[in-house]
Specification:
The protein has 7 helices and 11 strands. The chain is an alpha/beta fold. The protein has a single domain (8-223), classed as Vaccinia Virus protein VP39 (Rossmann fold), CATH 3.40.50.150. Helix 2 links the parallel strand 4 (54-58) and strand 5 (82-88). The strands form 2 sheets. It has an 8-stranded mixed beta sheet, sandwiched between helices. Strands 1-2-3 form a 3-stranded antiparallel beta sheet, with no helix packed on it.
Length: 226
């Protein structure tokens, strides 16, 4: 099931902003540093990476999170296959993706490994560092329940809960819980109270921790054994 194309405008010297949600795709301060702080460190990565480790994500966006993870996999030697599945309702065009990623010199050397296949319509590929990426297009409220996979770590990177509440509702986060391995983790930039409550109801031990940049707090969570 293919999603609808993302609607974009470019602001503040080249930051892509969703016209549907009026929200930027990454931090206006430093999107790459935000990814490392929120999604990687928030899930204890790269320290937990190893053969067969599984990452899942709500909100593929520009692909910056995947490429940052690929850099960490490559830095570890790339000998272990890591698997990442991302759910995206409104995929970017390859040209827009490439323009957005050009803002980050650190990923520039590997961005073509994503944008080239993406332009050809491929949504399953292997990025540098032996990161096996699959992007599932369509509404996550439909595609996640149908997914037969499990994750050891989740990147919850949808647009702001205030502007895109559907991606943070109790039913969808319950599916995140259902598709999380024992002791699996979640990290997200938001500390919205209803998101934390929904994660707790989904079976997670939830913590509010220091956020990145202007965001005072973010959320991490670990699946509780029952």
């Amino acid at each position: 099931m293919r999603g609808q194309t993302a609607g974009l405008e470019w602001r503040d010297g080249g930051v892509p902003v969703s016209t549907r949600f009026d929200d930027p795709y990454f931090s206006l301060e430093n999107g790459l540093a935000e990814t490392r702080h929120v999604f990687l460190a928030g899930n204890g990565l790269p320290g937990r990476l190893g053969e067969g480790f599984r990452v899942a994500e709500l909100g593929f966006g520009t692909g910056l999170n995947a490429l940052t993870l690929a850099l960490d996999c490559a830095a570890m030697g790339g000998g272990c296959a890591v698997h990442m599945t991302s759910f995206e309702a409104y995929p970017m065009a390859a040209e827009d993706m490439a323009r957005a990623l050009a803002a980050f010199p650190e990923v520039a050397g590997i961005a073509d490994a994503l944008t080239g296949p993406w332009r050809e319509g491929r949504r399953e590929l292997v990025l540098p560092g032996n990161l096996h990426l699959r992007v599932i297009e369509g509404d996550a409220r439909e595609t996640l329940p149908a997914w037969d996979g499990m994750a050891d770590a989740w990147f919850l990177d949808g647009f702001s809960p205030a502007k895109n509440p559907e991606l943070w509702d109790a039913d969808l986060l319950a599916e995140v819980g259902r598709h999380t391995a024992p002791d699996g983790t979640v990290a997200t930039y938001t500390a919205a109270g209803f998101v934390r409550r929904n994660l707790a109801e989904a079976g997670f031990d939830v913590a509010r921790v220091p956020g990145y940049g202007r965001k005072r707090h973010m959320t991490t969570a670990r699946k509780v054994a029952r």
